[in-house]
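Exercise (ungraded).
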Amino acid sequence: MAGNGYKNEFGVFGERPKVPKKLYDAKYVIGGLIVFFVIASFTLWPNLGKTIPAPQPKLETPVILKLKEADRKCVLPKAEIRATHMQMLVDWRETVVRSKEKGAVNGREFVAPDGKKYLASLTNTCMDCHSNKAEFCDTCHNYAAVTPNCWGCHLETGKKLAEAK
Amino acid sequence: MGMDRREFIRLAGLSALLGLGGKGAFEIVRPGLALAGFEPAPKALEGKRWAMVVNMQKLDEATAAKCVEACHRVHNVPDFKNPPDAKLQLPPEIVSRHEIKWIWTEHFHNAFVEEQPMEKVQHLPFLLLCNHCNNPPCVRVCPTKATFQREDGIVMMDMHRCIGCRFCMAGCPYSARSFNWRDPRPYVAQVYPGYPTREIGVVEKCTFCAERLAQGLMPACVEASRGALVFGDLADEKSQVSATLKKYFTIRRKTHLGTNPQVYYIV
């Protein structure tokens, strides 16, 4: 069989002409590629070779400082809350908002592994201790470039539910 | 690659043991973790069928206004009519079109369209709110189950799931639902710290103060009503609502639609 085509009783098919292996307009193509990569990577240069320090979320809020050393712990162990707090908050949200729906878990209080009970609430429990959103939540979220949409509705002020008159 | 009967039984038995003792095994590997869970709030008011009675013989204009104010304050409902900043002032047609209301007043002929007009009650400020129907059309049409009926009868909103399609608004015959056409937060004069605001693009309505019931409190409007509003469990024979309904003749809004509304009016 000739070349790269194939042949049957009706004739020869798919025969492609031989193309010389040559890059036409090489200086424009390569030059253009170089210009493209320079422009595309432009935003990365300022940080080249630098290490951005890991964020240090601040824990020193008035409420936490008031607690005894032994009581200064989150609802879950530190490593766990750091890795899974988003999952936990979704759990809290589903359980609280959808409690008493048919077949749902009916609960407003979160029972921590150590047996302590907490009101499952972002604004009233989490933000009560961590009243410094800018220095606590935002430092890591900005570092990791995540934008949780909690704050579109939920307030940052940590304050116990006030009694309505 | 076959498995004889003895091998199969041995494996099945082991699996069953592992399944039954799963939690115990988990406890040994990572103590404490399996314990984390949820409990109902200890002080919560429990009911099987929450309902409300509005006693129009006791309700005057000022009390009705107080009820509305109390509700809208604790739920961070925006007031487009009187914005906290003069710069935020909106044209009147936008104010009425974008209005958010959880509880509001209306005259008899607007509230009870199909009833015969009654001279005596014609100009009373009828307090209207979500009727928490037993057969809620809004729940049936919601494509994401953002609005759902709880086992205690409350028709609840899950703002996290609302996609703003407004089917529920079309479904509700009582106009009890409002859509957030604009960001409501600038229009909340004094933000109530215990409760979230809403975002642009979601539908909201009265929730019978589900968050207050969980704390053992009566709904905000009931507390502000000086006895004109009665709230309680209809399934409980001894509750105040049951007693009130037995004692007085009451009417409900648009019962012919078959939604079985659970807000009763003494006229």
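Further reading is listed at the end of the chapter. For now, observe: Confidence is low (pLDDT under 50) at residues 31-35 of chain B. Chain B touches chain A through 41 residues (CB under 8 Å).
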